Amino acid sequence: MYRSAALAALLVSATAFGVAINPEHFRATGNEPGWRLDIDDETLTLVTHLGETKLVSPTPRTEHADGITRYRVDGAVHALTVTVTDQRCADTMTGMPYPNRVVVELDGETLSGCGGDPAMLLKGGEWTVETIGGDAPVADSHVSLTFMDAGRIAGAASCNRFMGGYALSGEGLTLSQMGSTMMACEDAAMNQERRFLEILSGVNRFEISDDGALLLHASDGRIIKARRP
Question: Fewest CB within a 10 Å sphere: which of 39, 156, 177, 178?
Answer without folding.
Answer: 177
